[in-house]
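Entry type: protein chain
Record version: 2
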Amino acid sequence: MALTQRNNPAPEISLSEACRITGFPRSFIEQCVEAGTIETVKKGKRRKLFRADVFRISSRYSRFLELDPEEKALSQIAKTFFLVLWVILASFFISDRSFAGTDSGGTDAGIGAQSGSTDADVFRSEIHNSFQNLVPDAPPPGATTVFSRWVVGLYGVLEADGVYDSTRSFSNWPYNAGAADRNTVSGSIATLNTLSSPQAGFDVNGSRFGIMISSPLYQGYRVRGLLEMDFLSTTGTPGPVSAGWDNPTPHLRQLWVDVETPGYGDLLAGKYWSLFGWQPYNLYNSVQIQAGPAEAYGLFPQARWYAIGHFEGTLLEPAVSVESEEPAFGLPSFVEGLKWAFPGWPGEAMIGATGKGIEPLSVGVSAIETPLDGWVYSNTLSNPVGFNELSFAWAADAFLPIIPAKYGNPDGTLTLSGEFTTGAGDGFQFPGLTWGMGNYGPGTPGTALPFGTGVVNGQAFVPVQVQSWNINLQYFFSNHARTSVAIGIAHISAGNLASQANAMGPTLLGGGSLSNGMAKYLLPFNRNQYIHADLWHDFTPAVRVGLEAGQYQTDYVGGMTAMDNRLMMGWYFLW
């Protein structure tokens, strides 16, 4: 509500009067004074605030908070919808007795006994703000919650995507597949000719929904859990027919339990984001169905410990986890991470296509060790030869607000984020990354290790060396950050794959399927790069659209290069 000045008002006012006429909290007005946004003058023994500065701040932030008539109408409809939805769910699944407990003396410890102590911030992290689907650190924005002694939240994304490709190298979600042409795949003449033709497709597979629940705090302990489903189980190599794109199957995305302790950190068990690369807070902004090319991305069964410490205005988060990425590995991977954050320098950010909020300046490092073992079998060996490799990789991630958000206002913010990883045998951290391989070479490791993890050369199993990096720049316009643009580049390469392929013959390592199942790679690729530019707009807090133009460039071990130009649009209803 914009303020109007009276005729000939006093030029100076008190801090209390400024709070009264603006409706802003005292702490906010004091921050404006400290920043010099509101000037003061000494009057007697007290300092007064210039009325003109107070009205200017009030006018600025009142406009910032106002909604247009269409948004107000949609907001009212949304409130009514969620209220009705909650009443229905509460009628069937929740009763007062379900969430009411008793204390040690047998007295009622329900809502009436807990008045004034309802914990409405149980999901709020000390480092992370409200991003979509990033619990336990934060709830999805706008999640329907009910507060008593328990917290229950329902959330989801309805997503519709349309994509145009200049070739038929991919499905709608290529992940880390490489672009292809008639010189880099095997197949019939008709298939090779068709591969160079453009294609367009539509899908809703990125849609997802979830439910989260948190127990009341008891002697410093709290238990939280989440179940989330999506429709991306048809990823990988769906057939080149519409059923692979528009007839998705439900897929378990997340399922975990987190135990908060009073002073020993948190313990998490279940299927959750990998600690490698501090996922998912460093996923770059893109319309692509995640995972985007060259970004560490994975949800794995795991057990994790983490804690957040406070050090002179900064935050430090150590974490360790044991993750079961692939049953064929025999033993799980071990991941360690350390993240530093400075909440005093925040910036607006979008991660993927649905996460959006203010995130602090941060730097994180992580490392992963994965045991690889098996027996090498080949026609040249009379007896199998055992191998036992401990692969290692590390990652560095950073989020840098160049033009930070001030006083919680995301307008005009500019942020830079990036990730770098290097190691060997960690290709499983990049979904769909087979390098086009459908064989291990002249032999086999005797176990179903994912293609792209390594090759068999003579009597040895050689892990593929993986190096990746991505950079993403985002700018949010001065309309409450409803409109934003982003540019980015992502690159991934296999350091030793060309030399290994040339030593044994490149075609021995080919045979992997294109992401759309149309053909098979003739030989592996060892470099893949994706450059993209994005335009985003939020019509309402719940309705978003994104448009992306990008280009894939894939280099093969035989010296050939294939390219694909992609135009993609996504519509999102966030609830």
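Comment: The first strand starts at residue 12 and ends at 13.
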